[in-house]
Each structure stands twice: as C-alpha cells, then as structure tokens.
C-alpha cells in the first residue's frame, strides 16, 4: 500500500506518456543496459555510485525512488534501483511533476543526430539545419564532472544522465537524421517515418523510431506480466552470453564516445534503413528479428561501457571479473 502510494507520487501518470514520443529504448531496453553495467561494476563501485545517488537534490526525486524498491536482499534492491535510474531521464518528461519537469527535463539531451542523405547510391553528410542534439556533449561534460570535485549532489544528477545517455546513443536512430524528399529537414531519428498506412489516425500511428525503441519486447513480449527482475534478468543474461565481455573487451573504446555514436550511425544507415524497409508498411518478421540481433549487441555494449566507465571513475582498479549476483 505504502509503496503503491509512493509510486503514484513519484511516477504518477508515467503510463500516459509512454509510447508517445522519442524515448530511445523503452524501459526494458534501458534497464537491460543497467543490468549489464551492474554485472561489470565492482562491489566497491556499486556502493559508491549508490551512495552518490542517495545524495541527489530533492527536487530531482532521484533518491526518493529508492523507496519504491523492497527486494529480497539489499544488494538486489540496489541493483533494481540502479537499473531503474537508467530511465529517470525519461521519467522526468512527465509534466504533471512541474518542478521536476522544469528543472530536469531536457529534450535534446537524448540524441545526437548526424544529418545524411543518399545521393546516387552514396551516403552524403549535410550540415545540421537545426539543433542536432546534445547527447554527446552532455555525456562528455558529465563524465568529466563525476571525476572532478563537484559535490555528490551534482554528481548524482550526472550519474543518472550518464546511465541514460549511454543507452540512448547506442540506439541507432538516436544518432541519425535521414534527409529525403519527404523529410527535407531530417526524419527526426525515424520519428517521421511512418509504418502504418497513409491516413491512419494520429493516435494509431506507429513510427520507425518507436519500432526500434521497443524492439526487444516486440520480439520477446512480457506475456506473463513478470516484474523487472524476473523478466529482464534472463534476457540480459542471454544477451551477455552471446556477447561475452572477454570477447568484446577490445571493442569497448572506453571514453571514445564519438566512436560509439559512429557505430550507431552506421547501423542506422545499413541496418535500419535496409532495402526491405518500406514507408507505410509494418516491417516483416525477418526485419524484426534482424532488429533484435542489432539491439542485443548494442544493449550489451552500452552496459559494458557504462559499467567500465563507473569502474574507471569510482574504483581502485577496473574490474576484469565480477561474479554475477
Ligand atoms: Zn532518452
């Protein structure tokens, strides 16, 4: 009862805002990155990060969210909370929480778009006609801030944003603005590329961006309505087994945030906008499966990179092996 009340107090009408706009990975996608990162983080780093989050400014409600979690063990509770924090930057979009919205919602921190078009079969880059997003800039600033002398309260907000932005930048469509005759000012990361037939009422429209944000649950729906731990853990474990840390360590490019974004952009150009994608048509099952294959790798890499970033900042030494729990 108490928890339900707190949830309402902090999250309110989150459901009403879900699915309405560019979120970048839905809740499940982001939480998978958090789960993977937590597996990489040393116990010492987990503690330090948790302690900092607890020092967050009150109006951010970052620390209050911890009240929502009452898991079997304290360790599990902290992990679930850390996973939740990957979504905080989306939670603050809720306008019903006026101060939180006003002080923390930043629409253009969720993406960093390169504008591009295809001319005579070749990719050409175009100058960004308007603000192409500040995700990279913010990630750089905040990753420096958590290494520096800022107080824990400031660092808490930085950590929450880092947890979210790393995930966002691994979603191919958060790095891409494709310019076509139909979208001369860019397609806003596929938000303007509709998959539903022409003339579909706005409320029933589906766009390419949301299709990719929710690619994991599209392939693996939570049919039993399991809670996060039950639902996400096996999925994340499966993805990690497919892309083990040791095999992918050499590709981490730690601190090279531009490289991460470049990888995503390439995937957008080659994987998302493949020849079999047709405007006003729902993608085929084959396309959906291919999307999952891409997402698995992106989510795991995002998690490894996030975990190692925190290890490098808050640990005495970067961990090479951490036993899962
Ligand atoms: Zn986002």
Throw out a few tags for this protein.
4% strand; P1 Nuclease; 325 residues; three-stranded mixed beta sheet; 15 helices; 51% helix; mainly alpha
Account of the 3D structure:
The structure is a single chain. The chain has one domain (2-314): Orthogonal Bundle (P1 Nuclease), CATH 1.10.575. It is 51% helix and 4% strand. The protein has helices at 2-10, 14-17, 27-40, 43-53, 74-85, 88-91, 98-104, 135-145, 152-169, 208-213, 215-219, 228-242, 245-248, 257-272, 285-314, and strands spanning 114-119, 122-126, 176-178. The protein has a three-stranded mixed β-sheet, covered by helices on one side. It is globular. The two termini are 28 Å apart.
Give a topology summary.
Blueprint: H1 2-10, H2 14-17, H3 27-40, H4 43-53, H5 74-85, H6 88-91, H7 98-104, E1 114-119, E2 122-126, H8 135-145, H9 152-169, E3 176-178, H10 208-213, H11 215-219, H12 228-242, H13 245-248, H14 257-272, H15 285-314
Parallel strand pairs: 1-3
Antiparallel strand pairs: 1-2
Helix pairs in contact: 3-5, 3-9, 3-12, 3-15, 4-9, 8-9, 9-15, 12-15, 14-15
Zinc ion binds next to helix 6 and helix 9.
Residue runs with pLDDT of under 50 for 5 or more positions? 13-22, 318-325
In CATH terms, what is the fold-level topology?
P1 Nuclease
Number of strands: 3
Helix content: 40-55%
Average pLDDT, to the nearest integer?
90
N- and C-termini, Cα separation = 28 Å
Strand content: under 5%
Q: For this structure, what is the CATH homologous superfamily? A: P1 Nuclease
**SSE order, as H and E?**
HHHHHHHEEHHEHHHHHH
Rg, Cα atoms, Å: 19 Å
Number of helices: 15
The molecules bound to the chains, other than polymers, are: zinc ion
Strand order of the largest sheet: 2-1-3
The CATH architecture can be given as Orthogonal Bundle
